[in-house]
Amino acid sequence: MDTVLIAGGSGLIGKRLSFLLNEKGYNTIFLSRQKKSDTRYYLWDIQKGTIDASAIEKSDYVINLAGAGIVDKRWTEKRKKVLIDSRTQTAQLLKDSFKKIKKPKAYISASAIGFYGNRGDEWLTEDSKSQPEDFLSKCTIAWEDAANEITDLNIRTTILRIGIVLSMNGGALPEMILPLKFGARVSFGNGKAYYPWVHIDDVCNMFIWAIENEKANGIYNAVAPEPLMIKDLVKEIQKARGGFAFPFPAPSFGLRLVMGEMAEMLLNSSRVSSNKILDEGYKFSFSEIQPALKNILEKKV
Fold it and tell me: Mean per-residue pLDDT for 158-171?
């Protein structure tokens, strides 16, 4: 069976993706910044521009999820540079390695729906324009540009613009559940910002679909078919958990005061369409919010 090399495999998506790939019979190997006793891990150093050549030699497909955590630290100018560089430099190092060592059958890169910026209730497709004055959009443009350079090597390249990944093992869902435990149903701003969500297994299966579907090329929105306004999303989460909670809107000015520019992650509205990936044959396991939430809460995925 083919070997899949994953960069950024220790994150929320990477862990679940490697589990699902192994279930399907793929071999998974990983790039790591630290030496590990596990022989599936191979060293790379972005700053030094070095990578263990044997990882590239062994890989049939490469999935790049690497990048500094968007929410880990406040967005100073220095931090913004780290967020962009950690995405573009990893792609550049992989591109250089493909040129020197071996080309994979396909390269699949993560991206994000932050590309679109704050767009209200406008339906957004892969052809919609970005908003480069918005930092998340600017970061994502640079990320995708770096991934697209790999197409210059005649390598099939797929980019997945990922929405809000729902999982009990990290990401936004545990943070949304926390206030519910204290009887508060928290939404942000006026509550009308659209949040394009996706079940953790669906986003992982989209990466697998991109490996297995030789026609998968270019950019796809990795989101469920029906994005929800944040006020409705938290209501659905409450419904799936049971119990009662009072609506508690967190005002925009307060969020901006506390979080600075990072507040745009909570306040931006992106009504993103998944029609392209559906039209090209991807079948969702969880296209509706209640079955998705119930599965996540019961299985603790």
Answer: 98
